[in-house]
Amino acid sequence: MKKLILLLIIPFAGMIIISCDTSEDPVTSNSKGNIFVTSNPAGAQIWLDGVNTAQVTPDTIKNLDDGVYSVTLKLMDYNDATFSVSVTSGQTSDLTNIVLVSNISTTLFGPVRIYESFGTTSSQPSGLDLSSGEAWGVSSDSSGLVDIYYFSDSSGTSFLIQSADLTPNLIRETDFFVGSSDNLFDEEDSPDRNTETWTNNISNMESNYVFLYDHDGHYSKLKIVNMGGGVAGEPFWVEVLWYYNNTILDKRF
């Protein structure tokens, strides 16, 4: 009888010992490292060693083995940003406050003053070269650079900002599309240039910004910010401020 009891006790004790050994395994033996990632602006895709993690900033990439990883942040309208990050088991490495750089290449010009085309002198240019920000007379030696100009007639009844090719001997064609806001800095992108909806001029009294598509296929975003003149010795004038997109066919602003 004693032998039977002993035989029953021994395997039970073995089970207790095995159970205790398992519960006392160090937690750190199976722990992994993490990478905490933030960016400005937020919402960038997080790529790890060339693979999309399907996570966006701010977030934590978890359960990584020890080692050095390549982390790339991708966000529309911004350049990719890539960093090497070292990971250690049981720790979280920080990759924070990464400032992403816009890949939209624009130049802000102005304010530049242009004068009405009727009755002006050589020192009162009517035309604009959108790509350089320079004002030129439509009859000057540099008139071939003019994209748009401030047209007026002898009767004093017509005042338009219009495409250069509407004046004799100039060929640079520019199309206009009036935007829906007067805030030039609202980051609104241009619609596609469409010959059915775009026109070749705007009123000199237009208060909203205007999208332009020039002879070289560049988009601009222009606003009349001031006007004056119309008195003896000083023809009417307007001052304009505009963004010029340096990349052909790029409509982003």
List the total number of helices.
1
The overall number of domains is 2
Order of helices and strands: HEEEEEEEEEEEEEEEEE
Mean pLDDT figure = 90
Total strand segments: 17
Distance between the termini: 93 Å
- Nearest-angstrom radius of gyration? 34 Å
What gross morphology would you assign? elongated
Main sheet strand line-up: 8-17-16-15-13
Share of β-strand residues: 35-45%
Q: Main sheet?
A: 5 strands, antiparallel
Give the low-pLDDT segments. Answer: 1-29
Class inferred from helices and paired strands: mainly beta
Roughly how much helix do the residues carry, as a percent range?
Answer: under 10%
Explain the overall architecture.
There is one protein chain. The chain is mainly β and 253 residues long. It has 2 domains: 68 residues, Immunoglobulin-like (Sandwich), CATH 2.60.40; 140 residues, no CATH class. It is built from 1 helix and 17 strands. The strands form 4 sheets. It has a 5-stranded antiparallel sheet, with no helix packed on it. The chain is elongated, with a radius of gyration of 34 Å. It starts with a helix and ends in an 8-residue tail after the last strand. The relative contact order is 0.13.
Give the topology.
Blueprint: H1 2-23, E1 33-40, E2 45-48, E3 51-56, E4 59-64, E5 67-74, E6 81-87, E7 92-99, E8 106-115, E9 127-129, E10 134-136, E11 148-152, E12 159-163, E13 175-178, E14 201-203, E15 210-213, E16 219-228, E17 237-245
Parallel strand pairs: 1-7
Antiparallel strand pairs: 1-4, 2-3, 2-5, 5-6, 8-17, 9-10, 9-11, 11-12, 12-14, 13-15, 15-16, 16-17
